[in-house]
Write a structure and sequence with these properties.
single chain, alpha+beta, Thrombin, subunit H, Pdz3 Domain, 6-stranded antiparallel beta barrel, 25% helix
Length: 440
């Protein structure tokens, strides 16, 4: 007979089954007694006031330490972060000159009463001028070429070691300084000295050897707060509004040393200085100047109206300060401040006036007096005696319009010049493809 495992099971409720259940209950009871300690409630030890205070102080100390390390880390990494994550510099825009207001003096019927002047009045005038000079001096700097081994005898060799500059713009990353380009050269390094006497390393933003100007830059992050509080960007005025007899202030290295101040008047506004592709009005003064003096000319509103340069009429040995009129070089300043090349063709010309047209039969336009050696104009075939009449389809009837059209083209672009050249049967039209270059 087959084995049935259920045969050994006792019926439910039988004595055998009750014995088994009793044994199981006893086993469960012993298990509960064995692990009864796990069911005990562990009460936390009460925290005293002293421990609470100590814990609070400990957390506060840790917070202070963490804050100090965070601040130190922030200021240590700030210059690196500003350098690494800085955006593009802002585009520098030089505002155009406003038209001078009409003189309303003629409308006044009453004659002005001249004040009585004495020695005390003269002192008051000088004090007023000096106060204005001190205010404008915040925008003046000295740009120096850092001395190298070969420059120990710079004075003996005639090399310029420093020039006066003026803070003309702030693009958000750099302070931009306009100065004479006499210090420019390959592999050079420069230092800028501000009005408070502090010195900072500068770099060359862009140079235009044709006009003789350069823009240097100093990183804003390098300049201390103390220096920031004592300098400012100078305001460029309207030199076209200047008149003979106007009182002016000259600041800079006019007398052979830095930090000079001179007062005087504009003796003439009728002269011009020519260079290739343009010309510039000259403001002459009665302020004395050394042979290689440089400086900045201000009007009575504290605005820059001229850049004093030793290159103006240097062959004549003029002993007074002469300045390039600021209005005529504003377009050049804007290009240099934005790091752009100043367009250059290399033509030294003059406007053919109506009188010359009638008397000599020369067509209207720009008469080419000279062409710079190895210039874009010479390479294109332009010669002395040619008359330039159009550039890229635009008429150029004066040096001013010629200069304006040229400055609106980009260096490296090819431009169509149209001119007139005299032949056996008179003037004939001739065209040139000029690839615009730059000098510096």
């Amino acid at each position: 007979m087959p084995y049935d495992k259920d045969q050994n099971l006792a019926p439910e409720g039988s004595p055998e089954n009750r014995d088994v259940q009793d044994e199981n209950k006893q086993d469960d009871s012993r298990q509960e007694e064995k692990y009864s300690f796990l069911q005990e409630t562990i009460k936390p030890e009460p925290i005293s006031r002293e421990k609470l205070i100590k814990q609070f102080v400990r957390i506060a100390v840790y917070g202070v330490i963490l804050g100090v390390f965070s601040c130190v880390g922030f200021f240590a990494l700030k210059p690196w972060a500003e350098n690494w994550f800085r955006g593009d510099p802002e585009t520098v825009t030089i505002p155009e000159d406003e038209e001078p207001a009409e003189d309303q003096a003629a409308e006044e019927e009453e004659e002005p009463v001249d004040p009585e002047l004495d020695a005390e009045s003269y002192a008051e005038i000088n004090d007023s001028l000096y106060e204005l000079a001190q205010d404008t001096e915040a925008g003046i700097v000295t740009v120096s070429r850092e001395e190298q081994e070969a420059d120990w005898n710079a004075e003996a060799t005639g090399l310029r070691t420093s020039v006066t500059g003026v803070i003309t713009a702030d693009n958000g990353q750099e302070l931009l300084i306009l100065a004479d380009d006499a210090l420019c050269g390959e592999g050079e390094s420069w230092t800028v000295s501000f009005a408070d006497g502090s010195e900072y390393t500068a770099s060359l933003k862009r140079q235009d050897a044709n006009s003789g100007f350069a823009v240097f830059s100093v990183m804003r992050t390098d300049i201390s707060e103390t220096t920031w509080n004592q300098i400012k960007v100078a305001e460029l005025g309207n030199s076209n509004a200047s008149r003979q007899g106007d009182t002016v202030i000259a600041l800079g290295n006019m007398f052979g040393y830095d930090g000079g101040v001179g007062y005087g008047v504009i003796s003439s506004c009728d002269h011009k200085e020519t260079f290739y592709d343009g010309e510039c009005d000259v403001l002459t003064t009665d302020i004395p100047v050394s042979a290689d003096g440089t400086g900045v000319l201000f009007n009575m509103d504290g605005e820059v109206i001229g850049m004093i340069s030793a290159s103006i009429w240097n062959e004549n040995g003029s002993g007074t300060a002469n300045a390039y009129a600021i209005s005529d070089i504003k377009s050049t300043i804007e290009l240099l401040a934005n790091g752009a090349h100043v367009p250059y063709a290399g033509i030294h010309g003059t406007t053919v006036t109506k009188a010359v047209q009638d008397s000599q039969g020369i067509p209207a336009g720009i008469y080419v007096i000279d062409v710079d050696t190895d210039s874009p104009a010479m390479q294109a075939g332009i010669q002395s005696g040619d008359v330039i009449t159009r550039i890229n389809g635009r008429d150029v009837g004066s040096i001013l319009s010629y200069r304006q059209v040229l400055l609106e083209t980009e260096a490296g672009s090819q431009v169509r010049f149209v001119g007139q050249r005299q032949g056996a049967d008179g003037y004939v039209e001739i065209k040139f493809n000029v690839t615009i270059g730059s000098k510096g």
